[in-house]
Structures are given as C-alpha cells and as structure tokens.
What does this fold into?
Amino acid sequence: MIKLVVGEKGTGKTSRLMEMANADVNECKGNVVFLQASKKHVLDLHHDVRLINAMDFEINSVEAFRGFLSGVVAGNFDIEKVYIDKLYRMMEVNEENVEVVLTALEKLSEEHNIKFIAGLRYTPDEIPEKYKDMMI
It folds into this structure.
C-alpha cells in the first residue's frame, strides 16, 4: 500500500508525516522507518522511529532509490511502514518519472508487505489520475 501526502512547499507535509510516524510507533507491530533528505527534525520523531538521512547515500536515480530501499528492507524484515519525506531532494521526481517512482514503491510494498507513505511536492491536480486514490 502506498499513500501520498501532497502539497506545495510550506503546506505542512513534513509535519504531517512526522505526526503520522510518531502515532504509528505505538500502533504498529513492526518497525517504523522515516527517510528524509536532511538531518533536521531528529528530536521531533519518537525515539523508536528509525530515522535515516538518505542524503548520506548518494541516491541520484529511481534505480538507486529502489536499491537503497531494498537494502533498508533487507537489513530489517520487521519493517511495517516507511515514511518518505522530501523525495524530490533525494532524486529528481518530475512528470516524466513520478509513475516510475510510484511503481517501484508499489512493487516493494507488494513484495515485502510494507506500507509506504510519501510526501510529494505536487498539487493534487499534478498527480497522475491512476494515483489520485492514494492521496491522504
């Protein structure tokens, strides 16, 4: 399952993702991972949320991102949810490849029974039609 938190810059996507991750720590049976593109908000997340600064791993393409996520999953089979903040800073996400990125997340979600919640700097109108039902 994939859910998308969308909005333009400054609309509170990061805060919303952090609130959701913090709430899930108490409700999930598995682990909660929070990927971000900086070292900010370290103290804003519950200490049981596994925080990963993806910028430390030189992700520069969809293939590198999928490989990175596969490595995160391989390192811990107890992951239940993965929150992804500021995906556009990890790699370029644009109209041409947003479907490729979301398809890669869908595949990982299905293969490993992990829920992905990603923040995207898009307006609801910019999301491809087939992914609009993923918006929360």
In short: Residues 2-134 form a domain with the Rossmann fold fold (CATH 3.40.50.300). The mean pLDDT is 88. The first strand starts at residue 2 and ends at 6.
